[in-house]
Amino acid sequence: MHEIDIHDLSDDADYAASIQQGSSSMNRSDSSKQSSSGEQEGAEIVYLKDNVAIHPTQYASERISGRLKLIKQGGSLFMTWIPYKGQSSSARLSEKDKSLYTIRAVPFSDVRSIRRHTPTLGWQYVIVVLSSGLAFPPLYFYNGGVREFLATIKQHAYLVRSAEDANVFLVNDFQDPLQRTLSSLELPRAVSVANSPSSAAAPTDGETFDRNSAYLQENARQWQKHNDPARDLSIQVLEKFSLVTRFARETTSQLFREAQGDGFIPNDRRKQDQKTNDYPRIAESNDVQKLPEDVQVPADPLEFDKLSLVWGKPRQPPLGTEEWSTFLDCEGRVTDSEAVRKRIFYGGVEQGLRKEVWRFLLGYHSYDSTYAEREYLVSVRKSEYETIKNQWKSISKEQARRFTKFRERKGLIEKDVVRTDRSISFYDEDDSPNIKCLRDILLTYSFYNFDLGYCQGMSDLLSPILYVMEDESESFWCFVALMERLGPNFNRDQNGMHSQLFALSKLVELLDSPLHNYFKQKDCLNYFFCFRWVLIQFKREFEFEKTMRLWEVLWTHYRSEHLHLYVCVAILKRYRSKIIREEMDFDTLLKFINELSGHIDLDAILRDAEALCICAGENGESCIPPGTPPSLPLDDASMYYQQDDDDVL
Amino acid sequence: MPSRRRTLLKVIILGDSGVGKTSLMNQYVNKKFSNQYKATIGADFLTKEVQFEDRLFTLQIWDTAGQERFQSLGVAFYRGADCCVLVYDVNSMKSFENLNNWREEFLIQASPSDPENFPFVVLGNKVDIDGGNSRVVSEKKARAWCASKGNIPYFETSAKEGTNVEEAFQCIAKNALKSGEEEEIYLPDTLDVGTSSQPRTGGCEC
């Protein structure tokens, strides 16, 4: 075996085990777990390599070995990497954790480039970068076979070697020469940093990716501090390694601290606050960042979030009635709400079950309520609804004539309900009772919350709820629960919208600094081009069914209360190269975003959003000001305060 | 020859919710009317090539949300406008009364260099409804208001039936072009439209 550096222990029990494992027949259940077209009929395995591993940490015991395959089906090429089952050498990685790293049938149409790394010492590895800008962790070929891997891809997909870097292979690069240059620039740049003369202190032996990235990450900070133009390059490097998450980052910073003792880094380097600075901050070029003085506490390896190095789990089938019943105790309480929310996060809910489950997700019913309690609540709420509805129902024509605000509010609602989701059969008749129902609920809501009143966009939010609930009072209370969280979107001062768009700009800055810089240069940092996405939770961007799927996923608040912002980032990242390449300005960008409506792949975006959310970790959450919708408002009274001169109410 | 050629003319359509802004824009650009428009959220625009004499221009027509609550967004969308179209519904007095608010809000947010002479065009839409029987704003009243605001050109339109839409936008384009010229200092005789001495009139003779 190769000589391995001190962190890359050669008495690698994991490796030995994997050799054994690889020679024995592979567990069938592994491949049968593949969720997509991977190995269905008509699929041909054109490449298979055992003992291809990923190294989530620097610990040899935590490496995960698996089998890499290229599968051809229906003219498309897919890549899978499935970890071996039953590798018991690692105490800290459960089977569940390992399965998170699984690569299930990624089509090469989603792949942008593959970079081959051939360290002087150590194993060859490749990094696969997706069109979205996300990258899989490095795949180490313990038994060789990188050349064959690339050759096989070349046979079945369009693969060209980058003109700038012989180790970068571009996939599906049909674009014009300019674009080819642009896209190929990105990874080679990363390398040029790693190998640049200024990185003399960099490890030169067969370092693992972790080590390199620790070094680069640290260098990013150094460059920032010294205002070196090269810092942009380092940022790009980190962008490329965007899936190196807290798990890896903490390990790498740990490595760095060890390296510090070796005199790699100037002694006057300020200590860093791990919490806020373990992801590179992108500072203004003249803004020399003062890092807080803080005592460096070595990260506790046991606190590592093992779920971190994920790139979004594959979608599951929606939750059905039978499975739902297993979450309920005999009196109807949801015993493990976290498990339910997680299940829905990954799969959504079947249409027939939505009526029941949405009430929990929206917070109208509490998870620990019993059947009897809920039944009682429904009847109480029904009469409450009727009471509020009567407040406007009882306004006579005469009275209305002297009640301008009421007439205007009613007029506004009536104008909007007749142009809400009319293409859905539920609302398509001209005198549909469902349209009238929308009107009644919205008008009642505008009395229930008279200060907020009615605002355009509310009918979009109510429509799917009524479609699912098929009951006026129940729809009303579910809508009320939703508006508890989204109400600030409609405030007159637009504070809810502004705080979300601000948080979005911070998240893009964190997760894609080149894109952030681009928006800045084009004077687009107000993110108004995402206004519609945020205001009505992507209601106009997806078809009706997909919107409902997205909403129930967002409402789980499983990964974050603000997953919708990560969805925004994911979509922007998916089209980042197009946006930058075509030099879109504010107008063009707004048009482009508006026209994406109906063309966004929800499942793919949800996976990306989850990955980004995990990637960003606490740094992501710290981008989002407290009270940002859909978080519950900090202070109800002030949030709903409306000025009296709001003449549309 | 002009020192600089303008090719893009930016037009903003404003007016109360439901007066037909999106419909007017679609009728003009796509020659289509739908009963199924959705309330505009945020903003959007359509573009159309227009020709004056031998020159081609791109008319960029911005459609914005009509609810007053969204006005704070305007600042991002209104800047650089060459003409502002104010739309009301002839069947709604309130939408007519609000024209003044829309005009003032636009001037505040877009802050054009010469607000006194910034070109507006007013459209009274939905003249087709109920054969005109439900009309509550008379043409006379509308024209009087337009005259009081510096002879704003006025058209009565039906986006549904396409009535007067082409004519109105011809006038809008011409005024946008004129506004652009004043800003960018063309030699005055390169075009026969919009020479600087020509006063704006209550109607539009295009």
Sum this structure up briefly.
Chain A has 649 residues and is α+β, with helices and mostly antiparallel strands.
Question: Explain this structure to me?
Answer:
By secondary structure, chain A is an alpha+beta fold. Chain A starts with 12 loop residues before the first helix and ends in a 10-residue tail after the last helix. In chain A, helix 16 (433-448) packs across helix 17 and helix 19 (495-511) packs across helix 23 (563-574). Chain A has a nine-stranded antiparallel sheet, with helices on both faces. Chain A is globular. Chain A has helices at residues 13-23, 28-32, 95-101, 146-156, 177-194, 209-226, 231-240, 246-260, 274-277, 321-326, 337-347, 351-361, 371-393, 397-401, 404-417, 433-448, 458-469, 472-486, 495-511, 513-521, 531-535, 544-555, 563-574, 576-581, 586-595, 602-621, 636-639; strands at 44-54, 64-73, 76-83, 103-107, 111-117, 125-130, 139-141, 159-161, 168-171. The two termini of chain B are 24 Å apart. The relative contact order of chain B is 0.19. Residues 185-202 of chain B have low confidence and may be disordered. Chain B has a single domain, classed as P-loop containing nucleotide triphosphate hydrolases (Rossmann fold). The radius of gyration of chain B is 16 Å and the shape is globular. The chains are: A alpha+beta (649), B alpha/beta (206). Chain A: Residues 20-40 are annotated as: Disordered. Chain A: Its main location: cytoplasm. Chain A: Interacts with non-phosphorylated form of RAB8A; phosphorylation of RAB8A at 'Thr-72' disrupts this interaction. Interacts with ARMC12. Chain A: One of its GO terms (molecular function) is GTPase activator activity.
Key words describing this protein structure:
heterodimer, A: 649 residues, alpha+beta, PH-domain like, Cyclin A, domain 1, nine-stranded antiparallel β-sheet, 9 strands, 9% strand, globular, disordered N terminus, disordered C terminus, B: 206 residues, alpha/beta, Rossmann fold, six-stranded mixed β-sheet, 6 helices
